[in-house]
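Dear colleague,

Following up on yesterday's call, I've attached the two folding results inline so they're easy to grep. Please treat them as preliminary; we haven't cross-checked anything against experimental data yet. The first protein's sequence and structure tokens come first.
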Amino acid sequence: MKIIQILFLVVLTVPFIEIYLLLQVGGLIGAFPTIFLVVFTAMLGAWLLKRQGLATFQRFQASLAKGEMPAYEMIEGPIILLGGALLLTPGFLTDILGFACLVPALRRRIAQYVLENHLLQAVGGYGQGQTPERDALEGEFRKED
């Protein structure tokens, strides 16, 4: 299945899941507590986004000041942004996914996975069995006046 098809399927099914969950929770605890819970998770998400985003930015600056590559921070930044956006989206499924993106230990493991498996292939271009020898052009160079 192509990535566009998967994305289309997610965009199509998530709202139905969210509506179903909102109706189920609303039926259990009532309409006003459900609305309060959705608004509360959005406010908590905004607070966590600000707090963890600033902490990641400070670690980013500290790594640069030490002369190190802030690789984890560069991966964690978009994960934090995605988590905040999911928490600001009304619904319980997106809230669960958003909180998962804002858990530091889980976010660090996601960043480690991306760095170890995908970034090296993307930067080096050596994925799917390619080796540096295949990409090298051989020849001779001679400068003529």
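Below is the second protein, in the same order (sequence, then structure):
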Amino acid sequence: MHELSLCQALLEQVETITLQHGAQRVVRILLRIGPLSGVEPELLRHAYPLVAAGTVAESAELVIEPTEIRVHCRRCGAETPATPRYLLCGECGAWETQLISGDELLLAHLELETADSAP
């Protein structure tokens, strides 16, 4: 399950950011995952507690937001949503499209607790 190694890489990045900001712990992690990313959000959600145990993110809330697939049409110039199986332009139906979003795994937001912000 490659979601476990993705979680490990995510936690390394989170710990680096936490250290850079002098935070005590991570409160919330927001990930954006596209349907073409090759990542199964539920498997990632299940792997997270195993990897986060004993880290500054152990008690952090993991929030996963799905992103939509969007394409740019090289024929008509439109930017439209698309489906995973058919990356067709939603305006003219052309297949000459470029993927704009939908394949990302993005650490979008971290909510940290610092000594100043602790209750």
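For the second protein, one point worth flagging: The beta strands are 23-33, 61-66, 70-73, 79-81, 97-101, 105-114.

Best wishes,
A.L.
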